[in-house]
Every structure is written in C-alpha cells, then in structure tokens.
Design a protein that fits this description.
globular; two-stranded parallel ribbon; alpha/beta
C-alpha cells in the first residue's frame, strides 16, 4: 500500500506507533528485477517518514506463531504461512493490523482494519 494511501486509510486519528515485521521486508520483490536499489530506498523512506518500528522475530514471536497456527488448524482454516508470522508479530506488539487481505480476520488473536471493509 502506498504511503499516501496508507495515510488516507488511517485518517487523522493519532496512532502511537506503526510497526512492520522485519521478516516481510523481503516480500516486496526487492530482490527481483533491476529495481532493487530503488525499492530498498523507497522502503527506507517510508520507514523514516512514518517512524515505523521494525518487528524482529524472537522466541516470543515464535511462541505466538505456534498459538495462531494451532488455533487456525483447530478451526480448519488455512492462510499463507508468512501471514501467520505477520499475525504473530502483530500479536506480539498488541497492535491492529492494517491490511487488504481479509483472511487475516481468521486470526482470532489480533484485531484487523481492512480499508473499505
């Protein structure tokens, strides 16, 4: 989601913090094609402009990943495995996940905000 679009969706409400799972930074195709440097520079700009704190994966996030995975499994629900990690990171910081992917609503342990939803 572009920075302008992100800011439009969160509106003018004050948000204490923005977080982003560090492990997902490579998921934007930065290592593909000839725009790697441009994309990495844009990511750094977004992180700086919004004051985004990167969320690392530690033993606590891994534990939350297992809780979410088991919960989804019990419900017979499947979502992409990287999205389980995103959910675990969100759960770890206690934040609300801003996403366009409705399958995140299957994760009972986090709150989601779906623009236009």
């Amino acid at each position: 989601m572009a920075v302008g679009n992100l800011l439009k969706h969160v509106g003018t409400e004050p948000f204490a913090e923005f977080h982003h799972p560090f492990l997902m930074a490579g998921g934007y195709g930065f290592l593909k094609g000839n725009r790697q440097s441009f994309n990495e520079r844009k990511l750094r700009q977004v992180i700086s402009r919004l004051g985004i704190e990167m969320i690392g994966v530690d033993s606590e996030v891994a534990r939350k990943y297992a809780l979410i995975y088991r919960s989804l499994e019990k419900k017979g629900a499947k979502i992409p495995i990287n999205d389980v990690w995103i959910g675990a990171c969100c759960m770890n910081v206690g934040g609300t996940l801003l996403t366009r992917d409705k399958h995140f609503t299957l994760i009972d342990q986090i709150d989601t905000m779906i623009p236009g939803g």
